[in-house]
Amino acid sequence: MNEDRITRRGLLKGALAGLAAVPAASLLAREAHAAEALSEEDAAAKSLGYVTDARRVDPKTNPSYKAGQTCANCFQYTGAPGSAEGPCRIFPNKTVKAAGWCKVWVPQQS
To answer: Per the confidence metrics, is the pTM higher than 0.85?
Structure first.
């Protein structure tokens, strides 16, 4: 009968192990919910003329486009400077290529 009882020391060890697992579990969950890359085939991307490489923008169909405009130098882009891709305010829960472009391009404020 004594073998079936949980000791105070055993209970504390289990509780501490559980508490230590909480931060690890939250990190794993955060990685699982990481934003996915925006595809040019996405309906929202198509409607806004998003391309992953601004050099492919057709100025005839997008007269507002000017050479040198990319997601990396757009106000809507919130990725880290120098990164290849990052989040955009226009496409929530998606990442866009820093070299990309769309019709909502707005110059970054200094």
So the answer is: no
